[in-house]
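Supplementary notes for students who missed Thursday's class. We covered one full example, reproduced here. Read the sequence, then the structure, then the short commentary at the end.
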Amino acid sequence: MTEAPPEVGGSEDHVRAVARGGAFNLVGSVVYGAANFVLLAIITNGLGARAAGPVIVAIAAFTVLARFAELGASTGLVRIISRERALHRADRIGPTILAAVIPVVAVGILFGGILVACAPALAQLFGGDGQRAEISRLLRAVAPFLPVAALYTVLIQGTRGFGHVRALVWVEKIGRAIAMPLVVGIILLAGGTPTAVIVGWAATSVVALVVASVVMTVLTRAVRRADPVVSAATIDRAEVARAFWRFSLPRAAGQSFDVAVLWLDTLIVSALIGPTDAGIYAVGSRFLLVGAFTMEAIQQAVAPRVSELLARDRREDARAVITRATAWQVALVWPAYLVVIVFGSVMLGWFGSEYIEARTALTLLSVGVMIAVLCGPSDAVVLMSGRSRQSLATSAAAFTVNLAGNLVLVPIWGISAAGGVWAVTLVVAAGLPALQAWRGLRLAPWSVESLRVVTLAVGTVGVGAVAARGLLGESGLGLVVGAVVGGTAYAAAAWRLRGSLHVGSFLSGLRTARSTERVAIGTVQEF
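Structure (token representation):
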């Protein structure tokens, strides 16, 4: 039986805690998103659309396999480490980490070998326009890094089990994120080939793994010193491993669906149309990651808080946290994507003139993100209520929609269809949990606050962007003027309505995030 966390205050206290927990993570997500945009810009401008396509396809295939090789162990570490800390069984944390990493390394090595052996076949599937040999060469070059990448992700994500996201943000979202474009840029300036570029990109995970290993070791030893209680019975390492994998393997299936959805359309576009078009589509579709990172940052703070409140049957407080977090997500995401919809061609032109072809896909994706964000952190709510099978079913449904839609529509309408299918997938992945939370838990994310934010964003940023485009055309100057004028009006209106929009709570979290940031993941009882 897990010890109950200490009793806490009312709904406003929980809302402020979510703001503190999400603020630092949000800052890290902004840096991560910006660094990824810079990385794509460097690759596409440095190599050109044709040479960049195979690199992006190889990165997609590598990422999918690396995430599969994680086997759900990152989520397992978060949950199990949290529970062992709560139960004062710190001596079991080390064996748990060992039980997690050995299979991940073994499967990572296996997948790396498969990638080397099957590189020509994968290149045949995803290649085109005479680029098959290049894709095969890139896949083989990056294969040795696959177990490194899988183990690194498990360890750095697992640090959240110690009750905070500082290690994750500093190492992954800031440190490695900034290192990737720097390394790739230096390689290209030195005249590096696409192979050198992808090897440099993958090699950042080696340094990051060393740092993550040190951080995990330090955190584990610190917990042992702070809680030196040793279990009376000798630790049964086999039992520890069985308990860990009983939880982790089912989660691996859901995570596999999620990562497949993230990269599947890029690979299908490459297989059906060609790597160059896949690279163009990948650049256009990566704009949606800004909204995804924002939602993830807030959800990681909401999840443990909702778990705690549901455990105490404090549904009204949980509802306040969920609706407030949804309004904040809408407030952060809608203005940005309204500008993207109006000036998408200008933004895509930053990567090169060829990438303007992805404009329709970008517009459809932007609409999908804006609808999805209205559903709030509902998947986290479903998981924290103990309904992991519902979450798995949602992931499977989203994957099915994505796969079927791409296979049927991409051959007809190309990358525009891929963008539309992913937009529908986003709505399904966000809408189903929202309906499940509403029907099963009576915890709907929708509120008057969110509707007010939508109206405010459209009336200021949306109108400002459209007016600027009408007066100055679809140009860089129009983008700047529209964003500045609309953004200023939006900020001023939001400040006037700061009481009803609860702006103060979020700004307070941003101011105090560095000193008090702590995600209460250690209070999670059951998924």
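Commentary. Confidence is low (pLDDT under 50) at residues 1-10, 509-527. The CA atoms of residues 266 and 512 lie 40 Å apart. If anything here is unclear, bring it to office hours.
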